[in-house]
Predict the 3D structure of the following.
Amino acid sequence: VSATVTGFSPEVRDGILDRDQNLCAMAGTPGCRGGQATEANHRLNRGMGGTDDVVISSDPANGCAVEHDCNWRLEHSDQFAEEGRRRGVKVILGSRPEDVPYWSGTFRQWTVLRPAGDGRASGMFLTGDTDSARDARDGVVCGSVESGFSIEWKEAA
Ligand SMILES: [Zn+2]
């Protein structure tokens, strides 16, 4: 187990904020002011209770733009964190961030965040799926960078 897990570099953080157009990923949730996002939240937590994989942890696909207060709330409010998991803002241990749909408040649809590396295309990919009532944990990402992505939803239990 690696002891050193780094956060986002300043360049990656700025890229995440740009990608999300500085809109807080929790906008519309009670408690979120819907203000200017200034921080990048780790979707899959770093270190204890999260991933020790520095590559996954520090990749833009593992980040989303949040306000300072919402970043704090995601770690300290169970209700807020639950809404974060529903949106794919938070990813549970055992899931890979790139495989969990991410609700983009900027584009008002589900998106897929693909990591950099291996010379593959990376970034945010729109799916055209605008059903905001879905739960990211029920979504299975289908498709590819070349063909485009869609999300297959498991039937609610
Ligand atoms: Zn917020």
Summary: Residues 75 and 141 are 26 Å apart (CA to CA). The first strand starts at residue 39 and ends at 42.
